[in-house]
Design the sequence.
């Protein structure tokens, strides 16, 4: 049984800012000029940490360390820190090049370790997350703490039992560390303040549908002032808005998940009736899924292509952070995108002591009105459609199968029977079933489509639009030479589904904006009314004392 | 139908746990919450590559961190030591003055003043009792000293010789009896 080293526990003297900084720092690490850890891997580490659901990952990581040690011959560190970007493809490629000693099996999907007392597989697709988890453990617990445990595990030849024991000790050290560092108490206070507000407003029973645009604004006006917000957390409208979004998501998930009907404090001791971190992890991961589409465009092969520039990505960020709740709180989201963004400018200006900027914003908030912001969302939708068409051109030209599903999504109501001449009838011979030469049919089909030789206006027009859309874009991935780059084609294929997801959510939100019943009638009159409210509150928060 | 009617009062507690986790996730994932003025995080991978790879470049941030952070220097020494051909531990506490000679595992390091140029010192690494591949790097490390890494020329006549300025970082580090020396 390993004892928890004293120095590892002493690491807990650091404050939570260190823990937060370590996670933020993960995405800053580069390898070969590219981010070493993709956004999804970093996000998965964050979810595992905040749900304290890391025991399984740490266990898997310890097995990966056994594999890493065997792969390099000069220490477990080599695989993690001297092998370029942390991607599944990279780990697979490294594994395929190593002549392992007996006991290791490498397949396309995973490495399997055969111990004397059992076997364990670590999949390549999971290795980027595990690798990011290791980086995080080393940064918060220290290299020495991790290395001591790994070296002890290697010393007498690892077994399933010794790996499990090492993982338990490592998890215990992390648990002790997080006990002092996870900033959970403030979140708990915030939850109670939001719930108390809803109860005071609508009666003693909390209703999800009580969370509406009016409630968000009312809460902010009542709680952002220094007399009502000791922590200062509710000072900004964006924070209040995000808190209500999280409250909505939490109430909804708690209601749906009846399995979580006897919650107790989160912890590893299930025998005492504590919440299983697996359940909490599942819920948080499901809520976080909403962000996946945007992150998928920054990760892996799709990350090579610049689908959105910084401004465009920034304009989508909050909408996707909210997920479906954006449709419930459309006016609040518009307020957060306009006045909320201006309040962020005030906060930044205050940090820089730029009094003039503070004064200018406080005196006349609302430089971007709701109509302009709505137009920006619509412009993004139009851009997204061009991106989809251009992606179709790239994929069809490369005769990639993904372009077939793109055509089906872009033209769902087309009459596909008209393409029958691309599928020649083949008579069965000798009673056998006729097999279609699918590759040949696909090649003929795409060649004709790209050359616009299809005898059908609808499809010819679609591919003409696709070619024009590609030609009009000049960013990375959309240059003529990129059409012949197989890596770029992989990127377009990987991005197709996320792009459609983004398109759907954005289209639903734009539709919601056009149909929402606003308290002041139209968006212009609503903006004028809101400007007066925000100006008054900004005056209170940041104006010159009378 | 209300939330509590449908789900029971305990579901509000469940919602609180979920809200808490989501809020902490926001805090963890939000780079903007990094404390202003907090030190730059060091890339441990860069530290490892600096320890392992003779050609690895070192960023100014890592150089500064190694100069300022005792714990980081200890980690670095550990990484260097893991694959060292030879480790010369810190000199015995009883010895006085600067260290002129160190011996370990068939190696001997001697500092000798140049007769031709008194401001220069020869670092002589004697490999007489070693028949493996010659070391290519010399590391001098210690809690209280500036970490030194020096590429070594090929041996001649069973010894590697380097000429350094007297009082330079590497000579002062080698003379320091608290320093550890590694050959790689």
Sequence:
């Amino acid at each position: 049984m390993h004892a928890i080293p004293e120095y590892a526990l002493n690491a807990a003297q650091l404050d939570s800012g260190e823990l937060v900084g370590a996670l933020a720092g993960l995405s800053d690490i580069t390898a070969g000029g590219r981010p070493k850890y993709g956004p999804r891997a970093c996000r998965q580490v964050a979810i595992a940490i905040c749900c304290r659901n890391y025991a399984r990952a740490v266990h898997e990581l310890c097995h990966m360390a056994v594999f890493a040690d065997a792969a390099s011959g000069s220490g477990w560190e080599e695989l993690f820190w001297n092998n370029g970007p942390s991607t599944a493809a990279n780990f697979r490629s490294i594994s395929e090049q190593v002549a392992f000693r007996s006991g290791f099996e490498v397949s396309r999907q995973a490495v399997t370790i055969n111990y004397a007392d059992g076997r364990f597989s670590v999949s390549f697709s999971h290795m980027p997350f595990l690798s990011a988890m290791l980086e995080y453990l080393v940064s918060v617990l220290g290299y020495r703490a991790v290395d001591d445990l790994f070296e002890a595990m290697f010393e007498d030849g690892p077994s399933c039992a010794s790996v499990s024991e090492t993982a338990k000790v490592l998890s215990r050290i992390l648990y002790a560390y997080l006990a002092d560092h996870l900033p959970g108490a403030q979140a708990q206070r915030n939850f109670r303040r939001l719930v108390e507000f809803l109860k005071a407003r609508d009666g003693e029973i909390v209703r999800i549908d009580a969370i509406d645009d009016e409630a968000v604004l009312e809460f902010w006006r009542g709680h952002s002032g220094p007399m009502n917000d000791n922590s200062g957390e509710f000072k900004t409208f964006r924070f209040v808005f995000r808190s209500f979004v999280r409250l909505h998501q939490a109430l909804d998930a708690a209601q749906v998940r009846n399995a979580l009907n006897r919650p107790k404090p989160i912890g590893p001791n299930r025998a005492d009736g504590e919440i299983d971190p697996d359940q909490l992890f599942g819920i948080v991961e499901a809520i976080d899924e909403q962000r996946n589409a945007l992150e998928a465009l920054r990760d892996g092969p799709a990350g090579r292509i610049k689908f959105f520039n910084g401004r465009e990505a920034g304009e989508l960020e909050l909408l996707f952070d909210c997920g479906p709740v954006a449709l419930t709180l459309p006016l609040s989201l518009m307020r957060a995108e306009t006045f909320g963004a201006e309040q962020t400018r005030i906060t930044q200006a205050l940090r820089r002591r730029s009094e003039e900027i503070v004064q200018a914003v406080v005196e006349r908030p609302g430089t971007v009105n709701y109509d302009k912001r709505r137009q920006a969302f619509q412009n993004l939708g139009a851009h997204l459609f061009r991106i989809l068409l251009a992606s179709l051109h790239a994929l069809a030209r490369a005769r990639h199968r993904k372009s077939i599903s793109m055509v089906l999504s872009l033209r769902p109501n087309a009459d596909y029977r008209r393409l029958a001449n691309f599928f020649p009838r083949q008579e069965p011979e000798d009673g056998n079933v006729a097999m279609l030469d699918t590759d040949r049919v696909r090649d003929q089909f795409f060649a004709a489509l790209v050359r616009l030789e299809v005898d059908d206006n609808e499809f010819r027009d679609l591919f003409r639009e696709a070619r024009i859309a590609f030609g009009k874009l000049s960013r990375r991935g959309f240059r003529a030479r990129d059409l012949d780059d197989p890596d770029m084609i992989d990127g377009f294929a990987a991005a197709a589904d996320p792009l459609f997801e983004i398109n759907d959510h954005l289209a639903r939100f734009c539709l919601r904006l056009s149909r929402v019943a606003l308290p002041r009638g139209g968006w212009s009159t609503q903006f004028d009314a809101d400007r007066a409210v925000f100006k008054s509150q900004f005056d209170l928060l940041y104006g010159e004392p009378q | 139908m209300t939330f509590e009617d449908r789900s029971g009062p305990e579901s509000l507690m469940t919602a609180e746990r979920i809200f808490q986790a989501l809020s902490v996730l926001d805090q963890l994932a939000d780079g903007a919450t990094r404390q202003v003025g907090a030190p730059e995080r060091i890339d441990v991978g860069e530290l490892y590559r600096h320890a392992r790879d003779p050609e690895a470049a070192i960023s100014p941030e890592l150089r500064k961190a190694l100069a300022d952070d005792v714990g980081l220097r200890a980690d670095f020494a550990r990484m260097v030591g893991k694959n060292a051909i030879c480790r010369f531990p810190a000199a015995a506490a009883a010895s006085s003055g600067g260290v002129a000679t160190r011996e370990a595992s068939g190696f001997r390091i001697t500092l000798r003043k140049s007769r031709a140029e008194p401001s220069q010192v020869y670092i002589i690494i004697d490999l007489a009792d070693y028949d493996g591949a010659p070391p290519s790097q010399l590391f001098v490390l210690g809690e209280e000293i500036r970490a030194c890494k020096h590429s070594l020329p090929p041996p001649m006549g069973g010894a590697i010789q380097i000429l350094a300025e007297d009082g330079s970082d590497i000579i002062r580090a080698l003379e320091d009896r608290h320093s550890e020396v590694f050959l790689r």
